[in-house]
């Protein structure tokens, strides 16, 4: 390899990583803790003559005594060689080519060791002028692969051949010190892939680690680089940040590092120094509720979270439309909803099925106060009624008495039997008597059924 072929940034920012080998006797990982499917893949690769390692979160979490979310595998077999070994294999990805070995719903991800980039490999590796990696399919050795990983604690490899752990970047020590530390020069590594800033926050919260100083320092200054990340990737990432059980804490840490703003610019306009705006109160409520639901093993819907996060920014926009363009309230809310969602999906690609639900939840907020006649009974049959009601309850916490009373009414109504429900509606009908139809003869039928 000719040294002159290496880009200056690539040549200088990786320190020589020193391998620390931890033998089977010196660590606590046992094969029993690794899923059968992951073991199958590791052994098959190994018996075909390839190196095969468990790597990343799997090793990190096992060393910490946690149950890993999934098991990632790294090997010196190329994707094509992997495909030949497994019938149930699919090759995926452009930016990173990966093999997915499918065991029903369980997917084991197998990555070929990645190498460094050189000028003459531009067709397989590509960098933008900001230093961001656009394509990254240069294969390499295991130590090169280690240098390309993000944090020291994510660059530990469990070797299926002898059950030793290869620690290339001092991950074991950082695990003990509870530190999130980038491998290499932090600024360069963030510029290569700005999502690493989000990952630093995510792991700090998830593992309850500190972010090492040099890894933390450049974040605020580079946070704006997230604007260049494709919105589909940021959608996936935002769910991992906010919808996996520690959303509230993650959001607060994201804000401290100025990382929330580039993902949610419209929401951030309503941020205050003392976290007191309605938008901020709603963020706290919905993220806390989401964390609790996950803790209780209940289902969660991203649409509910996004609907809550965007509700007050949407209402502010509706106010503006009423003031400047003479919109009626209902139309203003609908139009503001469109505008706010259009704006949000520019940075976070919320899928259509979810944006439809967001609109439904918002629309229900306009309908829930109107309970006369058969309305309340009909509303309760709607698919999204429960979400709309939960949403109303959160609003009650923020907006005060009138909304709170309305939420109470709906709670009682849902729990009541048929007679009680009818009495509750009769109360409302009594308070707002139906206006007499003006043209009795022609509209008699309509007036009875659609009030
Ligand atoms: P978890 O799955 O628990 O969220 P993880 O560390 O396994 O954590 P993954 O996203 O599954 O995270 O990635 C697997 C491994 O791939 C990481 O541990 C890390 O070594 C490497 N990796 C992932 N994303 C990046 C990135 N953006 N830059 C460099 N390395 C990365
Ligand atoms: Mg993982």
Automatic annotation (TrEMBL):
Please give the Gene Ontology molecular function terms for this protein.
ATP binding; poly(A) RNA polymerase activity; RNA binding
**What are the alphabetically sorted keywords of the record?**
ATP-binding, mRNA processing, Nucleotide-binding, RNA-binding, Transcription, Transferase
- Biological process, per Gene Ontology: mRNA processing; polyadenylation-dependent RNA catabolic process
Segments forming domain Polymerase A arginine-rich C-terminal:
328-443
Span list, region Disordered: 426-451
The Poly A polymerase head domain sits at: 52-181
Q: Which Pfam families match?
A: PolyA_pol (PF01743), PolyA_pol_arg_C (PF12626), PolyA_pol_RNAbd (PF12627)
Give the residues annotated as active site.
Answer: 70, 72, 150
Query: Mind telling me which CDD domains this protein's record contains?
Result: NT_ClassII-CCAase (cd05398)
* EC number(s) per entry: 2.7.7.19
- Top-level taxon of the source organism: Bacteria
Here the segments flagged for biased composition (Basic residues) are 435-451
The entry's function note states: Adds poly(A) tail to the 3' end of many RNAs, which usually targets these RNAs for decay. Plays a significant role in the global control of gene expression, through influencing the rate of transcript degradation, and in the general RNA quality control.
Record-stated family? Belongs to the tRNA nucleotidyltransferase/poly(A) polymerase family.
- Family annotation (NCBIfam families): pcnB (TIGR01942)
Q: Provide the protein name.
A: Poly(A) polymerase I
Q: List the source organism.
A: Vibrio xiamenensis
The encoding gene is pcnB
């Amino acid at each position: 390899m000719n040294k002159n072929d290496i880009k200056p940034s690539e040549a200088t920012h990786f320190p020589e990583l020193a391998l620390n080998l931890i033998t089977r006797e010196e660590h606590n990982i046992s094969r029993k803790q690794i899923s059968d499917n992951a073991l199958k893949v590791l052994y098959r690769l190994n018996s075909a003559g390839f190196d095969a390692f468990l790597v990343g979160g799997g090793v990190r979490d096992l060393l910490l005594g946690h149950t890993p979310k999934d098991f990632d595998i790294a090997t010196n077999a190329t994707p094509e060689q992997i495909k030949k070994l497994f019938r149930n294999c699919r090759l995926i990805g452009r930016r990173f080519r990966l093999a997915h070995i499918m065991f029903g719903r369980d997917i084991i991800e197998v990555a070929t060791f990645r190498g460094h980039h050189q000028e003459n490999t531009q067709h397989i590796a590509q960098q933008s002028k900001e230093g961001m990696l656009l394509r990254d399919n240069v294969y390499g050795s295991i130590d090169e692969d280690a240098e390309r990983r993000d944090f020291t604690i994510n660059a530990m490899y469990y070797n299926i051949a002898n059950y030793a752990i290869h620690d290339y970047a001092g991950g074991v020590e950082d695990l003990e010190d509870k530190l999130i530390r980038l491998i290499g020069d932090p600024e360069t590594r963030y510029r290569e892939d700005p999502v690493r800033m989000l990952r630093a926050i995510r792991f700090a919260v998830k593992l309850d680690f500190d972010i090492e100083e040099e890894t933390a320092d450049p974040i605020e200054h580079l946070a704006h680089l997230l604007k260049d990340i494709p919105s589909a990737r940021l959608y996936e990432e935002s769910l991992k940040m906010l919808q996996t059980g520690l959303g509230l804490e993650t959001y607060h840490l994201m804000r401290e590092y100025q990382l929330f703003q580039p993902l949610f610019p419209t929401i951030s306009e309503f941020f205050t120094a003392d976290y007191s705006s309605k938008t901020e109160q709603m963020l706290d409520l919905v993220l806390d509720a989401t964390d609790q639901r996950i803790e209780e093993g209940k289902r969660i819907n991203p649409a509910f979270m996004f609907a809550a996060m965007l509700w007050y920014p949407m209402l502010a926009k509706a106010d503006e439309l009423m003031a400047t363009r003479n919109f009626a309230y209902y139309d203003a809310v609908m139009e503001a909803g469109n505008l706010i969602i259009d704006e949000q999906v520019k940075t976070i690609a919320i899928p259509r099925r979810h944006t439809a639900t967001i609109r439904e939840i918002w629309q229900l907020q306009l309908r829930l106060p109107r309970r006369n006649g058969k309305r309340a009974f009909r509303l309760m049959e709607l698919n999204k009624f429960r979400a709309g009601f939960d949403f109303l309850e959160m609003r009650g916490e923020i907006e005060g008495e009138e909304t709170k009373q309305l939420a109470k009414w709906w709670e009682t109504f849902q729990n009541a039997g048929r007679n009680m429900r009818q009495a509750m509606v009769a109360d409302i009908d009594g308070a707002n008597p139906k206006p007499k139809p003006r043209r009795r003869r022609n509209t008699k039928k309509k007036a009875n059924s659609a009030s």
